[in-house]
TrEMBL record:
GO terms for cellular component: cytoplasm. This is Oxidoreductase. The keyword DNA repair does not apply. The keyword Oxidoreductase applies. InterPro entries: AKR, Aldo-Keto_reductase, NAD(P)_OxRdtase_dom_sf, NADP_OxRdtase_dom. The lineage of its organism: Bacteria, Bacillati, Actinomycetota, Actinomycetes, Micromonosporales. It comes from Actinoplanes auranticolor. PANTHER family: AFLATOXIN B1 ALDEHYDE REDUCTASE, ALDO-KETO REDUCTASE YAKC [NADP(+)]. Pfam families: Aldo_ket_red (PF00248). Residues 15-309 form the NADP-dependent oxidoreductase domain. GO terms for molecular function: oxidoreductase activity. Keywords: Oxidoreductase.
Length: 331
């Protein structure tokens, strides 16, 4: 697989892998199966792996440590800090970004991951009580100490990105971006392009919705069932959007997921910045399907239709009670 340079000299595989789904957020997961999927991803060139300290209360990082024990030199490792919980209870999620916590969180992640350096260390969510410059200055100390190679920010506004970049180079912004979540295109993406910062879209398949494989029963047992886009009449209306994506997929001999990922790759080029999506899956076959998206080509008329479909999505992209949880509410 070819590689892409994000920002600050950080190189990553053209497609990444988001490991959050291996932490049982979508129902029970088998650790050995998850580990096999991770190994398969690296085998086929998906070497940009993304996790976070909050996933599974640290268990996700410990799972990746089993892979890294044998294949650390093959992997570009990204993890995140800044979301706290009370004893792993996700309903109690809050943010923390003070300098002391930055250092503690990094050391804890290094220990769980079983490595001495993190390639890309993200602020997972902005702690609005702490100036972003203070948090990034503490992260920069980690670079100078050799514990971290590059810095990233997740769900920041364009203004916050500029403020952070004045303190230390930022390699990547990670925020939700897909055919059904495009608010970052208004300000954050243009700022990243201006500053030479790469973009790492999370949930590039709309938490699985854009794969065209979900029905109400498939999400009934996990947290997605409570999201506005997966509930009530919104579910049916958004399924109509997916049917439109399915139609484009049929025209190009691809799957809906491959079209959604190809659209992101093309859209990044249109907006002038490198984009490395990080779809997640528990199955090796889905990894192969996602990798094949790199070969999908879309015609202008198809891109125009996909733009129209994106405008028909119903429901907010975030249902979190904290209004600061995503960048769009702070822009």
């Amino acid at each position: 697989m070819h590689t892409i340079e994000l920002g600050d000299g950080l190189t990553a595989s053209a497609l990444g892998y988001g490991a959050m789904g291996l932490a049982e957020v979508y129902g029970p997961a088998q650790e050995d199966e998850s580990l096999a999927t991770l190994h398969h991803a690296v085998d086929v060139g998906v070497t940009f792996l993304d996790t976070a300290d909050v996933y599974g209360g640290g268990s996700n990082e410990r799972l990746l440590a089993r892979l890294l024990a044998d294949r650390r030199d093959e992997v570009t490792l990204a993890t995140k800090f800044g979301i706290t919980t009370a004893d792993g209870d996700l309903s109690t999620m809050a943010t923390r970004g003070d300098a002391a916590y930055v250092r503690l969180a990094c050391d804890a992640s290094l220990a769980r991951l079983g490595t001495d350096v993190i390639d890309l260390y993200y602020l997972h969510r902005r702690d609005v009580r702490v100036p972003v410059e203070e948090t990034v200055a503490a992260m920069a100390e980690l670079v100078r100490a050799g514990k971290v190679r590059h810095l990233g920010l997740s769900e920041v506004t364009a203004t916050e990105l500029r403020q952070a970049s004045a303190v230390h180079p930022i390699a990547a912004v990670q925020s939700e971006w897909s055919l059904w979540s495009r608010d970052v295109e208004r300000a954050v993406v243009p700022a990243a392009a201006e500053l030479g910062v790469g973009f790492v879209p999370y949930s590039p398949l709309g938490r699985g919705f854009l794969t065209g494989t979900l029905d109400r029963a498939a999400v009934a047992g996990d947290w997605r069932a409570g999201l506005s886009r997966f509930s009530g009449s919104a579910f049916d209306r958004n399924q109509a959007v997916v049917e439109g994506v399915r139609g484009v997929a049929a025209e190009v001999g691809a799957t809906p997921a491959q079209v959604a990922l190809a659209w992101l790759r093309i859209r990044g080029g249109q907006l002038g910045l490198p984009v490395v999506p990080i779809p997640g899956t528990r199955r090796a076959a889905r990894v192969d399907e996602n990798v094949a998206s790199l070969e999908v080509r879309l015609e202008p008329a198809q891109l125009e239709l996909l733009d129209e479909l994106a405008g028909a999505v119903v429901g907010p992209r975030s249902d979190h009670s904290d209004p600061n949880w995503v960048s769009a509410t702070r822009e």
